[in-house]
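Reminder to self: keep the SMILES exactly as supplied, no canonicalising. Ligand is pyridoxal-5'-phosphate.
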Amino acid sequence: MELKKHLDTLQVLLVAVSKTQPVERIMSLYEAGIRDFGENKAQELCLKYEALPKDIKWHFIGHLQKNKVKYIAPFVHLIHSVDSLELLQEISKQALKTNRTIDVLLQFHIAVEESKFGLTEEEATQLLQTPPLEGIRICGVMGMASFSDNPAQIKAEFMQLNAVFNRLKQAYFQESSWFKIRSMGMSGDWEIAMDCGSNLVRIGSLLFGERTYLNK
Ligand SMILES: *Cc1c(COP(=O)(O)O)cnc(C)c1O
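C-alpha cells returned for the bound complex:
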C-alpha cells in the first residue's frame, strides 16, 4: 500500500471510500493495513459494520438525514457532513443516548456546482454562536471541490476552505486541540488538496477502481 505509506510520512490520514464495494474488497485493503473506511449511506454502513472487523474506523461522508443518525451513532468514528444545526442537535441527542462523544466535521459548500451540500461561512458562524452541544466534538472542516479539469479552480476552492478552517480555529477553537482536521481531496484532486493544507484525503476509485452502481 504505497499510497498509505506515502501519506503516513506526511501525516495525512487516508480514508478509503468503500461505498458500493463488497466486504471482500474492503477486507483486502484491511489486510494491507488500512483501518479507516468511508461510506455515504447509513444502511450500507451498518451492514458493513456488522460484517467486518470491529477495529475499523468508519467515516460517514455523505449527506446524513436526521432520522438515520440513530443507526450509526453507536459506532461511527467521524461524521464529515454536518451542514445544519438541526443535524448537529440530533447527533448530540443520539450520542448522549449511546453514552458516546461523537466527532464531527462541518461540511462547507466550496464548489461552483449547485447540487453539493454544505454550509457557507456565515451559516457556520451562526451555528457556532449557539451554546456548545453535549456529546459532540467539532474536529474540523470538510469540502468537495468542483468537478473541473482546471487545477487553478480546484486549488482556489481548497485554499478557500483552508482559510475558513483557520478563521474558525482562531475565532472559536483556539483552546480545542481536537479542532485540526481538513478533510479535502478525492481520487482526482488529492494532490492539489494536500498542497492546500489537507490532512485527511477521501479516496475511492484510485484504491478500488471505478465504482459500478447497480441502481444507476
Ligand atoms: C465518493 C466520494 C469520495 C471518493 O471519490 P473518488 O473520486 O472515488 O475518490 C470522496 N468523498 C466523498 C464525499 C464521496 O462521496
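Points to follow up:
The first strand starts at residue 13 and ends at 17.
The radius of gyration is 17 Å.
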